[in-house]
Amino acid sequence: MNIISAQNIFDETNSRRYADHLQQVYDYKKATAEYLTCLKTKPQNDTLKELIAANYLRLKKYRQGISLCKTITPQYFSKNTSLLFLNHCRYASQYQQADSFMRNKYAKNDSLLLVWGLSLIHI
Predict the structure, then answer these.
(1) CA–CA separation, 35 vs 87, rounded Å?
(2) Distances (CA, A) of 23 to 3, 17, 41, 114
(3) Which 3-state string (H, E, C) describes the chain?
């Protein structure tokens, strides 16, 4: 008697692998859908959130990107994550949110705040 075992092609590892493939072939819409599926199984995964937020920027879904960036833990925020959030705010015309974020995150960095203030003048 031969027992055939089925492989679960819909597990989180395979979904992530497929999403990464879609990302590599620039299919950001489908990649985002797959990353969101992965996020359901690991809702605290900040790396996935950042990948999805980057795709939201490419797909011009700025308000969704802002909402998602707000769920990323503060300890995870890097310069890239901050820029991602600020770009979402800029394209969604959410300047007050961006300004508040800059003042809270970079309160002790006078030169960065000065550059941020100057960039708001030119928008």
Answers:
(1) 21
(2) 37, 10, 19, 36
(3) CCCCCCCCCCCHHHHHHHHHHHHHCCCHHHHHHHHHHHHHHCCCCHHHHHHHHHHHHHCCCHHHHHHHHCCCCHHHCCHHHHHHHHHHHHHCCCHHHHHHHHHHHCCCCHHHHHHHHHHHHCC
Average pLDDT, the chain: 84
pTM of the model: 0.80
Q: Are 36 and 12 in contact (CB under 8 A)?
A: no
Nearest-angstrom CA–CA distance, 115 and 77: 20
Residue 58: per-residue pLDDT: 97
Q: Under 8 Å CB-to-CB from 60, ≥6 apart: which residues?
A: 91
**Which two three-digit tokens encode residue 52?**
């999805």
Give backbone dihedrals phi and psi of 64, rounded to 5 degrees, phi first.
-65, -40
pLDDT at position 31 over 70? yes
